[in-house]
Design a protein that fits this description.
globular, mainly alpha, two-stranded antiparallel sheet, about 425 residues
Length: about 425
């Protein structure tokens, strides 16, 4: 396979991730103006923010199944157009119910996107290239938003919050057509038969998803709950920056729309640096022979510790220092974002897919619970309690890796007795 072909595919995924996160987070840029015009309370805004995650979380495992059935060239443009239309419609409605419905639709149709991204990389890249490819497209959620935040603020300043949603939706629809035009399924000779990826065969995946005994096992292991809880706590910091952050800057810190857009971009750049630094340094340490406890676990624990630095913003007044503490926190979030590696390091080899679905499902619950909780805590316009909660979550995540995950080693393969409804192992 020619490198140019692989890089073209990687570029398609990268831009798709940028658009994906643009349509998740444009609501945060529009929130202040939208809530004032429609007279929405902070609790109602919390509902709107969390509605995306209701369907996104629930559809993680079903979305992965769809990816295994439908060809990516047809599936990806369909879901892109579907969530982009829902994004556009947000600019045309005014009721709380309609806005929640649109956010739920976006979550529903974005759910298969990351399983699709992973499948594309697995098909197009050899095993020794995949970690770098995944790091590149994952970074799109940070670097893309770092540059998009000021652009989105400029669009809103020129066309209002409704124009922001309409423009975002149109961009996604156009990109869906570009995707269909340039993406091709890999030829059979593109896949390295000698170096197959460590994945579960499709038939086994289906059995895992349908087997309640395996699902029960996935939720009964202390080590697995350690990474599940860690993912939830990590998501608490992430979802603040994807939802309430611009409102915090605009309403609590008193920044204008354009200033908010530019200040908001700095923590995303910090997170981008964190995720790339963590990924490459962790891989380097593994190659040098360091243990998984040091090479994999320490970056995550350090990242969660740094994420708690968000509480420092409660004790400073200048925009500069607020930006420093928030950037340090999001940099830590980026450092800890390699935690997906623990799914393959700890889960039984026959259950990597199922454990990954459970891991992402629990992590997605943070996007349901945290925006709602912040909405209640900030009803009087004071975000101090919300930042304390986010810092506390980060520390809980750190403790989960210390006391629940413990030694980084795979869990023994369970033996299931389907006739007796029991588990041996």
């Amino acid at each position: 396979m020619k490198n140019t072909g692989k890089f073209k595919i990687l570029a398609l995924i990268f831009i798709s991730v940028v658009i994906n996160y643009m349509d998740r987070t444009n609501i945060s840029v529009a929130a202040s103006a939208m809530s004032q015009e429609l007279e929405l309370t902070s609790v109602e805004m919390g509902l709107i923010f969390s509605a995306f995650a209701w369907t996104y979380s629930i559809m993680q495992i079903p979305g992965g199944m769809v990816v295994d059935i439908i060809k990516i060239r047809f599936l990806y443009p369909f879901i892109l157009i579907a969530w982009s239309v829902a994004t556009l419609i947000q600019g045309l409605v005014s009721s709380l119910t309609a806005l929640i419905g649109c956010r739920m639709a976006i979550g529903l149709f974005e759910a298969p996107s990351y399983p699709a991204n992973n499948k594309i990389v697995t098909q197009w890249f050899a095993a020794q290239e995949r970690a770098g490819a995944i790091a590149v497209y994952t970074s799109g959620q940070f670097i893309g938003l770092a540059f998009l935040m000021p652009v989105l603020a400029l669009i809103q300043n020129a066309f209002g919050w409704r124009g922001l949603f309409i423009a975002s939706g149109l961009i996604g629809i156009v990109w869906a057509l570009v995707w269909y035009r340039f993406y091709r399924e890999p030829e059979s000779d593109h896949i390295d038969d000698v170096d197959q990826p460590l994945v579960i065969e499709p038939e086994t995946k289906v059995n895992n998803a349908a087997n309640w005994q395996k699902l029960k096992f996935a939720f009964s292991q202390k080590k697995l709950w350690g990474i599940y809880l860690g993912q939830f706590c990590l998501g608490g910091t992430m979802i603040f920056f994807l939802t309430w952050f611009p409102t915090y800057l605009a309403e609590y810190r008193g920044l204008g729309d354009l200033q908010t857009g530019f200040v908001a971009s700095v923590p995303f750049l910090a997170a981008f640096c964190g995720v790339l630094l963590s990924g490459f340094v962790s891989d380097y340490l593994v190659k040098k022979g360091y243990s998984n406890e040091f090479a994999r676990k320490m970056p995550i624990m350090l990242g969660l510790l740094l994420s708690s630095a968000i509480i420092g913003a409660n004790y400073v007044q200048s925009t500069l220092w607020v930006t420093v503490f928030l950037s340090l926190s999001f940099f830590g979030n980026g450092l800890a974002s390699i935690n997906w590696v623990f799914v393959s390091l700890i889960a039984p080899k026959s259950m990597v897919g199922l454990v990954g679905g459970c891991f992402n499902f629990i992590g997605g619950l943070a996007a349901v619970i945290v925006p709602l909780t912040i909405g209640y805590l900030a009803q009087d316009g004071d975000f101090q309690s919300a930042l304390v909660m986010i810092a506390a979550l980060a520390l809980v995540g750190l403790l989960s890796y210390v006391f629940l995950v413990g030694k980084v080693e795979p869990i023994d393969e369970p033996i299931f007795d389907v006739t007796a409804n029991g588990v041996q192992g």
